[in-house]
Specification:
The protein is of the alpha+beta class. It has 6 helices and 9 strands.
Length: 228
């Protein structure tokens, strides 16, 4: 009789497949002027909790207002700006440099919608008083260039009279300025000698962090900063 074949070892078990890392999807912001202040604050608080050290900020002792440097968000990509708008209710808007009292024009990138308003209380209730300049050449951003062109045409505003700004929610601005203050201390600087901290809000998975990249002193000096 023929010998029986030797038993074969079982095939190796398939390697477990790693699930792709999921990120919280960017929420689509509601249309401008359609949300109550309470609804907006509830939505914003949920997003602020995604900041890596926001809990530390909330429990920390706040420094004197005069000692806190101003802050600017710089070097963002268009995708990052849209992310910040969706999560943190940052409001891009335009106005006439020659006559700001004629109103401001909100910019809705999701719907490509531009709404003019003289409801300055809306801004005052929701946003910090120190609006941020958009530190980027509009000509190098197709998204901003397109919005500026559409606003100029729709509202008959000469392009050289059009200014773009970012309105930042009060709570987010307070956090950014606190983060700047702490960065100055980490760099061995007296925060009261600093005029401006420039940085970017980056995303790591499902959390966000603000990193200062440039520190500008009141005496005119400036230097790059990277946390050791």
């Amino acid at each position: 009789p023929e010998p029986e074949p030797e038993p074969q070892p079982p095939p190796p078990a398939p390697a477990p497949q790693q699930e792709p890392q999921r990120r919280i999807a960017r929420p689509t912001p509601p249309e401008h002027f359609t949300e109550t202040l309470a609804q907006r604050n509830q939505r914003l608080d949920q997003s602020l909790a995604l900041l890596e050290d926001y809990r530390t900020f909330r429990s920390s002792r706040k420094p004197d207002e005069d000692a806190i440097p101003n802050v600017a968000i710089k070097d963002w990509t268009e995708a990052e700006l849209v992310d910040l708008i969706g999560f943190f209710d940052i409001l891009p808007f335009a106005y006439r440099q020659s006559d700001p009292g004629k109103g401001y024009i909100t910019i809705d990138f999701d719907r490509r919608d531009f709404v003019i308003s003289t409801n300055f209380d809306y801004l005052g209730q929701r946003y910090a008083r120190n609006f941020m300049r958009i530190h980027r050449d509009v000509g190098h951003s197709p998204m901003l260039r397109s919005a500026a062109g559409a606003i100029s045409q729709k509202f008959k505003i000469p392009r050289n009279d059009l200014q773009l700004r970012l309105a930042v929610p009060r709570k987010l601005m307070a956090y950014l300025r606190w983060r700047s203050y702490e960065t100055c201390r980490e760099a061995g600087l007296d925060p009261s000698t600093v005029s401006l901290c420039e940085g970017r809000i980056g995303r790591r998975g499902d959390t966000f962090h603000f990193a200062v990249k440039t520190i500008r002193l009141k005496d005119g000096r400036a230097f790059a900063w990277s946390k050791p």
